[in-house]
Automatic annotation (TrEMBL):
UniProt binding sites for Zn(2+): C75, C78, C114, C117
One Pfam short name: FUR
Organism: Fervidobacterium thailandense
The UniProt record lists the keyword ATP-binding: no
Entry keyword Chaperone: no
Record key words, sorted: DNA-binding, Iron, Metal-binding, Repressor, Transcription, Transcription regulation, Zinc
PANTHER family: FERRIC UPTAKE REGULATION PROTEIN (PTHR33202:SF7), ZINC UPTAKE REGULATION PROTEIN (PTHR33202)
Residues involved in Fe cation binding: H69, D71, H106
Name under which the protein is recorded: Transcriptional repressor
InterPro entries hit by this protein: FUR, Fur_C, WH-like_DNA-bd_sf, WH_DNA-bd_sf
Length: 127
């Protein structure tokens, strides 16, 4: 396996230290000395080589370390991620195994309004 360059290592480190998925732009705020092009190249390499996984939602691509098996709630109003405490996929994975399938990974993303945004929305509709 090829050794990670300094830039790739830095991008992976930023992702590993985050408690939620990040976009390339988020990473650039943590690492302003690195151009967005360099960040995208590093992310491309990291995804292709299994260090990082990605998903796209509402035209944004998010990245997180491959070894993480966390599931998230994304507030579609404020854009904040909240880590879910319980893994919903384990019962599905067991069911798949019973059918002879071999699940390798999963990502559950539930979207909606967080409590703060829901309260603001509720207050606005009462006016």
């Amino acid at each position: 396996m090829e050794r990670l360059t300094k830039n790739r290592e830095r991008v992976k480190e930023i992702l590993c230290n985050s408690d939620h998925p990040l976009t390339a732009y988020d990473i650039s705020k943590e690492c302003p000395e690195m151009s967005l092009t360099t960040i995208y190249r590093a992310l491309d390499y990291l995804v292709r080589n299994g260090h990082v996984k990605s998903f796209t939602f509402n035209e944004y691509t998010y990245f997180l370390p491959s070894e993480r098996h966390e599931d998230f709630f994304l507030c579609t109003s404020c854009g904040r991620f909240f880590q879910l405490e319980h893994c919903f996929a384990s019962s599905y994975e067991q069911n798949l195994r019973e059918k002879g399938m071999v699940p390798k990974d999963h990502l559950i993303l539930i979207t909606g309004f967080c409590s703060e945004c829901n309260e603001k929305l509720h207050l606005q509709t009462q006016m």
